[in-house]
Amino acid sequence: MAAPSLAPVLYPESRRRFSRYPIDIALDVIALQSGIPNSMPGRCTDLSEAGLGAVVAGALIAGQPVAIELRLPNVAVPVRARAQVRYQDRLHCGLQFIGLSVEQREKIRYWSSQSGAHVLPRARKIEIAVPDQPAPAVVPDSKKLRGRFRVRRRRFFVLVGFMAMLIALGWWQWQKIWNELEGDASSTAEPQPGLPLRVSPEVMERRIMYQVDPTYPDAARRAGTQGLVILNAVIAPDGTVKRLRPVAGSPLLAQSALDAVQSWKYTPYRAAGQPVEVETTISVNFRLH
Question: From CA 82, how far away is CA 68, in angstroms rounded?
């Protein structure tokens, strides 16, 4: 009998919504393991607005939710976000961002525009030779098959029960880690001596009492420049803006954003019943009409 011929099977190119850039920076990954959040160091090898590739010193499972923190070059404020493990091959893994905010996306865009890195090429077509005639199927013994199914089903239910117990035990710790990564300080949190209390941008945005819109600079308008300017701000106990510095965004827009935000007024933030100094991030959006 002649051997079956081999026919090529072509897989189409992967479609990538966001450009991916090479990078080599430190990365912290926090994952829930045995009901306890575990911090694992790593290195980020490539980055996009959709996710990142990394080498992580720890075991991860596909589909597992994690928290990540990384500091991009030329961006003073770190990127803290939730992600999901897409795959792990030994120490190499791929993480997909979950609910990345506009501010975090703007940090990645600003870094990619300033870094001068080349976009990584997309995956090429893969050709795999397969026989045109399928191999004959082996019919297993029905009694053995039913026995294996019962054993596997019992193991499955035991595993599900064990995982549910671990999740219940570590849930409150997991939520605490998320809140710390997102910078959402509670109203009873005590600031560290000599340092302002870190509060999330969403919380401080709801406390704005008086706000001035920035003036669009003529030079930026002529150049067609638009986008976010990200500012690091320290708000005094009385709600006035004490210090400001730009951390990302076009230099043509930064000064106008600084001039406008300097006059903003906030409802005093209180911790343990007392007004305290806080640090936050402010995003000013410039759009050409």
Answer: 6
